[in-house]
What we know:
The complex is a heterodimer. Chain A has helices spanning 2-32, 39-53, 62-88, 93-115, 140-162, 164-174, 176-181, 186-208, 219-224, 226-233, 238-258, 263-266, 271-285; strands at residues 130-133, 136-139. Chain A is mainly alpha-helical. Chain A has a two-stranded antiparallel sheet. In chain A, a hairpin with a 2-residue loop joins strand 1 and strand 2 (136-139). In chain A, helix 3 (62-88) packs across helix 8. Chain B is an alpha/beta fold. In chain B, helix 3 (99-105) runs parallel beside helix 6 (148-160) and helix 6 (148-160) runs parallel beside helix 7 (178-192).
Amino acid sequence: MAALFQLVVSGVALGCIYALVALGFVLIFRATGVLNFAHPEFLLLGAYLILTFGSAGLGLPWGLALIATIVVTALIAVSFNAVVIRRMMGQPLFAIVIVTLGFGIALRQIISVLYGDAPRAIGSPWGAATVTVGEATITWTNLITIIVTVLIVGAFLAFNRFSAYGIGMRAAAFDEEAAAAVGIPNRRIHMLAWALAAAIAAIAGLLLASFPRSAVPELSFVALRAIPAAVLGGFDSVAGALVGGMLIGLAEVSVLSTQSGYADVVGTNFHLVSAYVVLLAVLWVRPHGLFGTPEIERV
Amino acid sequence: MLRAEGVEVVYGGRVVGLHSVTLELPPAGAVALLGANGAGKTTLLRALSGLLTFHDAEVRKGQVSLEGESLLDVAPEQVVGRGVVVVLEGRRVFEPLTVEENLRAAMLGGQGRAGRSGSMDTDRLDWVYGLLPPLRHLRGRRAGFLSGGEQQMLAIGRAMMTRPSYLLLDEPTLGLAPTVAGPLMEFVAGLREQGTALLVVEQNAGTALDVADHGYILESGRVVMDKPSDALRRDPDVMEFYLGVGEGGQEGSLREVKRYRRRKRWYS
């Protein structure tokens, strides 16, 4: 029982990270029609910039270092949008997507040159602490991941539903010309989408690099598994991204814990592809994802 | 005064959509813009509202100005901020959003932006609900589920949220039953009393001339006639080709209609 509980908690925590990453993919896709392949590198920025700002670098207090990390990541994303993506609007979507891919590779290389490839502990204040619930042991990282995700998602949903810019963002996502025709500032909406997506990615990166994991360049590949989460949800649906992320997190953790019994059939790394198995199964039945709009034709 | 002067619009760098079109919409005035499919009516509205960029088109010659200041190279949302707003053809409501969200979305732009204060926002909503009372009862409904007439009313309400001085309507009665179109145009005529100038684009000439005091007729990208509404109504060619009324005020018989299938062209 305790083992199952532990399993569910770590599955949900991983699902939360996937959900945050998928939310970022969906935000940028809905606002600009671009699938941003540089998004995994925004997670890396979150995990590594904290090394620069935090105790290992400039020595800012944790809170300040956190804010600086989020702000700088968002600024990098916004500048990328302003300098490159905005100028490419109107070009074939394929070209823009490839440019994001290139930007992602460049970012990853720069990070790897600046910080090295060795795993580095990011020194989150809760460290390796755990809590014991009954017989189950749960890491603070997992608990904090779940709490932070709930807060971020709640705040985002409220923003999306009630704030002027949230409503404007949904309006522009549906019909950009009609939005411009009633004065919705599309450029500012795009900027906001990039900033929000990158800020959320930075937080997800921090959580992903916390104990028992550490900051390694390979974290960006973990983030790539959030693409199935977004696709699973339908890619243009915020709720879909959250549900998709959760499903894939749970699937991955349950495969991870049971695959040793079937090692002669599936091998020992089957959990890494479980996301794609779930994705195939869902798309077989629902080609537009769980919550996607059937009419969507971009990408 | 919203003014287009000698405007030539080119699509994709080579296809000419408008040839030297001049049109004036005086403050608080009402102007009808008539013409057949492909005459360039929508293109002219795009030129006036800065939306040509969405269609790979540009004003190559001439000038578009508002109160004497050029509107060329002004971003669409800034054109709205200066008080010129267009209701696009085909309604184009934000379907996944509710009626009230559609209206609130338009609050991000427009004249005398409400900014952060909540009370101003409610004031503006109430003002639009006052202008178009049926919307108040639909406020919680998803826009995509409204009828055509309701959607058109929402599209007009959404544009009015920006407190425009000049409202440009592209085919507001397109695809609507006459029983729906009639009352809708009465609401539109009522907007004039708020001091909003109207430019009504229509294929249904009678409807547009009822609202307007001046009319322009556009054909193949050129203004071919430009007269007060009353004079247009009495013009025999307009009666035949746009109002569908034969000589002597009688509706032409089917046999006669057939004879007029050829397109009348004034400029040839």
